[in-house]
Every structure is written in structure tokens, then in C-alpha cells.
Amino acid sequence: MPRFFWIIMALIGGGLILLVTSGDRGTTLGIESDAFARTLYLGIWGVVLGASIFATRVPLGDVARNLAIWLFIILLLVAGYQYRYELQDVASRITAGIVPGSPLSVGADGQTVRLDMGMDGHFAARAEVDGATILFLVDTGATTTVLNARDAAAVGIDVDGLSYSIPVSTANGMARAARASVDEIRLAGIVRRGMTVLVAAPGSLDRSLLGMNFLGSLSGFDVRGDVMILRD
């Protein structure tokens, strides 16, 4: 068999003999036995790897370059895993800047949500209502959450079958609305089920309003400059 094989076997055998004969002393050749065993293990693998590289006769420059590339990839993966939550936060902030009203969950529990002020000076909230994505205008002056006719139809409400008999005040003046209900409103990690909403008559409301029946169900919310924080 090749001489290299017997060299490796001699190293393994010699190392094992030293570990066994060290007994209960806890050290081998003045080194802690655990550290000696790890060093022996890594050394053997280093010898095997080095011999394999030389056996392929690949230029050392190419070997060094490939090792550097793999080392960089490994370090990048480790760094990505260690900073995964921070990277998620950065990605959410970028999304919030690109897509108006995108909520940003603050904290691992998802029960604190951040909304950034839009270019128009208002706070918007992109929420899921019965599976449909609705862009709400956050309106602390609205007693009830109001859906415009277009968003109500997207949610699955029969807009044509409603009776618009409830007067409501909008930015365009007084309008008529109908009472309805939705199974779920989900804003990031904040979820409310079985909520009553109003549906504005077709053509009377441009944007749906996230009102106080949702905001008032939270433990608190406040505005800090151009940021609104919602706490479940």
C-alpha cells in the first residue's frame, strides 16, 4: 500500500496510544487531553487535505485563491446567520420605504408594529382583511374602520346588497355607509377577528380608513415624529 497511508495510520495509532496511556492524568505531553485529541484530529485532516492538493498538482496560486473564496463564502454565511434578525429588520425598512404603508414588526413577538409617515404627511397601514391586502389611511378621528366600495368588494362583501343608511363624515364631506363585518384584520403581528366595519357608498370615499374600533383595541399607540408605534 502507498507509504502515505502507513504514515497516516502511524499518526493515528501513536496519538491514540498517547491518549490511552495518559490515563486519568488529564494531560497528554503536557497538553489537556481534550485539546490534544482535537489537535490530532485537525492535524490528520490537514495532512490529508495537503497531500490531496499536492497529488492533484494544481498550482498553489489557484489553490490559495479557491481556499480564499470558500473561506469568504463560509464567513458570509456565518455572518448572515448571526445577524439574521438585523438583516430582516433592514429588509423590512427598505420595503416600508418602497411600498407605502408596509408595517414593520418591532421585536420577536410581532406585537409591536411601526408605521412610517408617508410623503403626504399621513400614516398609512397595509393590512390583510380576510385575505385581501388593503391600504388603509390611519384615522384616529374615525370611530369605526371604513372600507371604500372597491376594497369592500375585494374583501368579499356584497357591495350591491348593502343598505347605505348610516351618515359618515369624510374628507369629501358627508356620505352614506352600510354596516358590515369582517372575519379578520391582520396588521403584521397584530390580529383582530370578528370586527364591525362600515362600507362607504360607491364613489364617496377614495381610501379606506383604519378607525378607532381597531386602534382602540390596542394596549396603546403613539406618534414620535414621523413614526407611529402600535402596541398590542
UniProtKB/TrEMBL annotation:
EC class (word): hydrolase
InterPro entries linked to this entry: Aspartic_peptidase_AS, Clan_AA_Asp_peptidase_C, Peptidase_aspartic_dom_sf, Retropepsin-like_bacterial
Organism domain of life: Bacteria
Lineage of the organism: Bacteria, Pseudomonadati, Pseudomonadota, Alphaproteobacteria, Hyphomicrobiales
Molecular function per GO: aspartic-type endopeptidase activity
Keywords, alphabetical: Hydrolase, Membrane, Protease, Transmembrane, Transmembrane helix
Entry's Gene Ontology BP terms: proteolysis
Name this protein carries in UniProt: TIGR02281 family clan AA aspartic protease
Transmembrane segments: 6-23, 35-55, 67-83
Keyword Glycoprotein: no
E.C. code: 3.4.23.-
